[in-house]
Amino acid sequence: MSDEISLSEPRLRLRIFFGDDVMLGPGKADLLEHIRATGSIAAAGRAMKMSYKRAWSLVEEMNRSYRQPLVDSSRGGTKGGGASLTEAGEAVLAHYRRIGEITAREAADEIAALQAMLIDMSDGK
């Protein structure tokens, strides 16, 4: 068995807890990004293999948790519905992603040290 680690690159998945009731993590951030990309809560949920009900619930939770809503949505109908990030939503997403970048950069040596301590699982066992 070689000493070389054959694991994929480590990923850092950051969750920020604001007290007991409010959390921002990778799932909510990804949902915001998918809403921005698709213009739809339903399409964002589908892209994440998440039910519409779950996606809508997360959007409502985020909108209640911040001083300003993060997602603006309109119901369907003859004009069609849609959703978009508000200015606050864009700011929250940008801050969260930036915190992740800073954390990954600052913790790179420690993450590498942890990775070096792992056993080599390249033979699939």
CATH topology: Arc Repressor Mutant, subunit A
* Run of helices and strands: EEHHHEEHH
What is the H level of CATH, i.e. the homologous superfamily? Winged helix-like DNA-binding domain superfamily/Winged helix DNA-binding domain
Described by the principal axes of the CA atoms, the overall outline is: elongated
Strand arrangement across the biggest beta sheet: 1-2
Summarize the structure.
This protein is 50% helix and 11% strand.
Q: What can you tell me about this protein's structure?
A:
The chain has 125 residues and is mainly α. It has a single domain (19-116), classed as Winged helix-like DNA-binding domain superfamily/Winged helix DNA-binding domain (Arc Repressor Mutant, subunit A). The protein contains 5 helices and 4 strands, in the order ββαααββαα. It has helices spanning 26-38, 41-47, 52-65, 87-106, 108-116, and strands at 16-18, 22-24, 71-74, 82-85. The strands form 2 sheets. It has a two-stranded antiparallel ribbon with strand order 1-2. A hairpin with a 3-residue loop joins strand 1 (16-18) and strand 2 (22-24). Helix 2 crosses helix 3. The longest helix has 20 residues, at 87-106. It is elongated. The two termini are 12 Å apart.
